[in-house]
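Summary of Year 1 activities. Much of the first year was spent building the evaluation harness for sequence design. The harness presents a backbone, in tokenized form, and records the residue chosen at every position. We chose the following record to illustrate the format because it has been used consistently in internal testing since the harness was completed.
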């Protein structure tokens, strides 16, 4: 959707109604609740205007992140399919659905974006307004030797920008594969995931390492992808990218049994990356060269990445040496439950736990870490008015992805450890993303009556259309944008957000923010269908 870049106005001017609820809605069996700001009587109203008086709102005290006193309205008992809204004190909430298939619709929206994000092929009418011609088709320049041209096309655009980054892409693909394997995400999506894997395979250099990223030197203007004509570069390799590529290729191999040739290519790529990792035990960092300003995707050490690679290799090949290396790396990896591009230790854990054949000490290290982290997160939930796992100091760039990563940890803990995770907790994390938050906004574009409408996404802007299904970054207490300097002083963390295309640290979208949401929604769907 068009937005005037020099306008001082913000688009987030939706009327406050003080009733915050998941605007997509609920499966009939789900735990259902909304957050309200007063203890007044409240009603659930269906489409024919019938009013059901709800049990009195329960005071949850002052929520530190929201900066206000909150009450919870529970309506779990209502399971009659239909469209509803809530009324309290003459104010009415956004509408939402109760019915079978609500989770499936959210999943389809979340998965749909990967097709829109495709680079290097014609994206047809299945993408609706997001259809576009093949983009970024020219050969790329090897940054370290500009006389070399490489023909590397394909993959998903990373985010609101048109770059493609190996660690981000590998992690997103890994999340989606895990959702297929563990939570029953439709196998039909394997074709879409393959589109990214095919590009990842091309990002392996001759010596087995993986180039860190493929981008122009600076971000494109807000143009259509096929109009971005600047030279594309292949930037130098990193051990982060090599290890993540290695891991996702080993992980992916089992999903493509039907296509032996592709499976062999995945394993071949993973083997070569693994050999490179073994021969190069020291970290190979990536840093943006002075003339490149696209996403850097820098990380701390590379122990967690190597651990992920070792875990994926072990479960694929049962290589004892890989298991030994993993055993040593566990002791050096601080975070054994990390789910994101900068911390993939938890993905190593998921590999070992789902396989279950490794040494007991490795298994118990991961199970212990997941159980411990889950207990910690549930404690945070218990202390928060909104019942979610975010501290008031947790709202940084991509805060929605931290919340979703926490939820994924809870999903995996419930699957692989003895920890009892109340489905209500998982549901509340999803509810937050879909509107049960202090701004009453659904952070998924196109989903819900009051949803993000001005994402920082070049494509959406250039097409003057908002594409559904993208998870936006969410509140950030310290946005770096110059227009926002001092803007959020004194504003509660959960409200440090503006739905505005200019603000990349609040409103960008990425392939690896949708993917943990896919894990969460498919996990909830699976739990409820039992
Ligand atoms: O998701 C990344 C976030 O964790 C970082 O704080 C931020 C600043 O380094 O970068 C984010 O990643 C951006 C990437 O660099 C370029 N594509 C868009 C990504 C989302 O904003
Ligand atoms: Zn492209």
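For this record, the design step produced the sequence shown next.
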């Amino acid at each position: 959707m068009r937005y005037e870049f020099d306008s001082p106005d913000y688009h987030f001017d939706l009327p406050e109604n003080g009733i915050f609820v998941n605007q997509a809605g609920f499966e009939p069996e789900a735990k259902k609740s909304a957050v309200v700001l007063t203890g007044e009587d409240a009603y659930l109203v269906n489409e024919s205007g019938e009013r059901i008086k709800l049990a009195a709102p329960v005071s949850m005290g002052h929520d530190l992140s929201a900066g206000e006193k909150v009450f919870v309205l529970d309506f779990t008992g209502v399971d009659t399919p239909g469209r509803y809204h809530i009324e309290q004190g003459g104010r009415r909430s956004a509408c939402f659905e109760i019915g079978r298939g609500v989770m499936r619709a959210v999943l389809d929206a979340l998965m749909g974006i990967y097709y829109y994000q495709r680079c290097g092929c014609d994206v047809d009418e299945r993408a609706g307004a997001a259809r576009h011609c093949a983009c970024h088709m020219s050969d790329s320049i090897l940054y370290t030797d500009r006389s070399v041209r490489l023909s590397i096309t394909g993959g998903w655009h990373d985010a609101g920008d048109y770059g493609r980054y190996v660690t981000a892409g590998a992690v997103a693909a890994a999340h989606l594969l895990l959702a297929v394997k563990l939570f029953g995400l439709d196998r039909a999506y394997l074709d879409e995931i393959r589109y990214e894997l095919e590009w990842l395979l091309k990002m392996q250099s001759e010596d087995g390492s993986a180039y860190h990223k493929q981008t122009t030197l600076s971000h494109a203007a807000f143009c259509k992808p096929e109009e971005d004509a600047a030279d594309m570069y292949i930037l130098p390799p990193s051990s982060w990218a090599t290890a993540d590529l290695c891991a996702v290729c080993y992980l992916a191999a089992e999903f493509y049994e039907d296509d032996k040739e592709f499976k062999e290519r995945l394993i071949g790529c993973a083997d070569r990356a693994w050999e490179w990792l073994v021969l190069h035990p020291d970290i190979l960092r990536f840093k943006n060269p002075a003339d490149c300003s696209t996403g850097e995707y820098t990380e701390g050490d590379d122990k967690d990445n190597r651990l992920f690679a070792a875990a994926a290799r072990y479960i694929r090949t049962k290589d004892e040496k890989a298991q030994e290396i993993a055993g040593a790396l566990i002791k050096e990896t601080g975070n054994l439950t990390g789910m994101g591009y900068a911390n993939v230790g938890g993905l190593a854990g998921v590999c070992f736990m789902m396989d279950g054949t490794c040494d007991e000490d490795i298994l118990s290290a991961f199970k212990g870490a997941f159980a411990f982290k889950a207990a910690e997160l549930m404690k945070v939930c218990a202390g928060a008015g909104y019942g979610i796992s975010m501290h008031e100091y947790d709202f940084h760039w991509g805060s929605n992805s931290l919340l979703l990563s926490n939820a994924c940890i809870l999903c995996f803990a419930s699957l692989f450890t003895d920890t009892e995770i109340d489905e209500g907790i998982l549901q509340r994390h999803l509810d937050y993303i879909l509107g049960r938050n202090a701004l009453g906004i659904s952070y998924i574009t196109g989903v819900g009556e009051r949803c993000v409408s001005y994402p920082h996404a070049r494509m959406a802007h250039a097409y003057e259309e908002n594409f559904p299904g993208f998870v936006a970054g969410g509140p950030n207490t310290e946005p770096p944008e110059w227009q926002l300097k001092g803007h959020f002083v004194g504003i509660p963390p959960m409200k440090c957000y503006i739905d505005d295309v200019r603000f990349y640290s609040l409103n960008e979208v990425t392939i690896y923010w949708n993917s943990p949401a896919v894990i969460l929604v498919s996990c909830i769907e699976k739990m409820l269908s039992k």
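The mean pLDDT is 95. Quantitative recovery figures across the full test set are reported in Table 2.
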